[in-house]
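chain below, 179 aa
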Amino acid sequence: MEMPQDQTEAKDLNLEELEQFIETDELEALRAERDEWKDKFMRALADAENARKRGERDRREAEQYGGTKLARDMLPVYDNLRRALAAITDENRTHAAALIEGVELTLRELSSVLGRHGITTIVPKVGDVFDPQLHQAMFEAPVPGTTAGQIIQVMTEGFLIHDRLLRPAQVGVSSNTGA
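prediction:
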């Protein structure tokens, strides 16, 4: 028994629609998989870029601040040389001129080496305003003619390594509430 022509075309049409539907589903599945892989690729690329930037930043910081511990350990040597030179009297200068010159040259060389590595001194002066970012208050005392927060004595210089505080300057601060 033969089907009328209309029914055959209807069956063929339904089969074509079905094939088209299957292909569309497969195509959509492939597109979704492609989008998923593209997203994973973009995330991996961003992670790699972030890791590169982080590595570069870490390298720069290690280069700039890697010697911090050694520098901090050398600061007492600097302080002792400064104290030795401050303790010299005029009489000592005439009797031990060569020794004193050697200490001065050693201090200058140490300062030069520290400077080459980005270490600078913080040298507050009496009368400057106390800055807790750069100074460490060792004591407070009421001193006539000063206002609260003024530096009244400098015990040791402070140091910066590039833009970071290596050691604060140790100072005495006025505790007066009025001038």
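The CA atoms of residues 23 and 29 lie 10 Å apart. The first helix runs from residue 5 to 65.
thats it, cya
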